[in-house]
Amino acid sequence: MENIKQFFPIFDNNKGLIFLDSGASAQKPLSVINALDDFYKNDYANIHRGIYKLSDVASSMYDIARKKVCDFIGAGSPSEIIFTKGTTEGINLLASSFSSLLNAGDEIILSEVEHHSNLVPWQQVALKKNVVLKFIPVLSDGSLDYEWLRENISDRVKLVSVSGQSNVIGLKNDIEKIVSISHSVGAKVLIDAAQLICHYKVNVSELDVDFMVFSGHKIYAPTGIGVLYGKTQFLRELPPYQFGGDMVDRVSYDKATFKDIPEKFEAGTPPIAGAIGLGFAIDFINEFGMDKIERESLELTSYTISQLLQIDGVKLLSSSDANGVITFVVDGISSFDIGSYLAMKNVCVRVGKHCSEPLHLKFGVESSVRLSLGIYNDKSDIDTFIFELKKAISVIKGV
Q: Which of 70, 198, 348, 355 is catalytic?
C-alpha cells in the first residue's frame, strides 16, 4: 500500500514498529483522534436530553454517525443500526432478546470456526432454554461444509449464527449460500462480521442477512463502540436487552412502555464519543475505498503466505485463500517463544488460541501465531517479520 502510516501517529511515536495485530485491535488515524479531541473540547454534552446548543450539536453528531454506519453497510434505515460496546455485546444482546422466542427442542446452528463471542452466549441460551446447538464442520481447505448445512437444516432451526470470516482461518465464508439455505426453512441468520468488515465491502441488504454485528475498534475507530444491525421487523419483534433511561416511552410506578428502534436497545447514556469516532473512521476508510483495501490486503496476504511456506517447519492453520489473517505454528517450537522473540524486535503479533479454543483443539495444536493486517501494513513490514521469524527459529532451536 502507499505510505498510509503517515496518517497514524503511533508509527511516528514508536520508530521501527511493525504492527501485525490489527485483528485484535487496529491503530487509530489522526483524523479519528482529532475528532474525539475536538468533540470533548468543544461540543460534548449528553444527547437527546438537553434543550441547549451543546446537547443539540452532540445529538446531531451522534445521529449523523448512525447514518454513516447505515450507508457503510447498506442498511435500509438508520433505525436498523443499534450502537453497542462491540461485537461481543451485540451478540449477547441478540442472544438475550432472541432467546425469549425459543422453545425447548429448537435448534441453533453455529460453525466449528467461531470466536468464543459467538459460541459461549449461545451455549448459555442452550442451557437455559433446552435448545440444541449444532455445528457446521470445517473442511480441510478451511471452508465450511455447506452440504452438511443443507442436509441438517430443518424448521426446528431458528437461527444460524456464523462468522463472516474466521479470525483464525482467515477465509471469507459463503454468506449468500448460508442465507439461502437458512431462509429456506425460515431460520434467521446472524453474521459476526468483526473480521469480515476489516477486509471486505459488506452490504447487508444485498446479502439479505437478518442480523450482523461488528466492532469499531477493528476498523480504526475507538474502543467501546460497536454495531448490531437488524432488519426492522425483527428488531421490533425482540424485547429490550437492558432497561433504564432514554429507552422508555412512558413510565409509571406500575409499568413502562418502550420507544421504537433504535432507542429501545440503547438504554442509558450511549457511547456518544465512540459513535462519533466510528463515523470519522468510516470517513477515513471511504477515502481509500473498500475495493482497494480488499484488493491490496489480498495481495499482501498472498505474499505473506508464500514467504511463510518457504520456511522449514512452518505449518499454516489459515486457508491458502485467506485475506488479512494468517495463522501458523512451527514444528517443535512454542508459539509463545516465537511471539516473545518477535516482541523484542518490535514486531507485534498475537499468540495463543485467539479466543477460538475448540478450533485449536480440532487442529490438534495448543496455540498458534497470528498476524493480522491493517491498512497501514506493506511488503516491507512482512519482509521484516519474515527476517525476524527466521532468526527466532534459529535462536530458539540453537542452530
A: 355
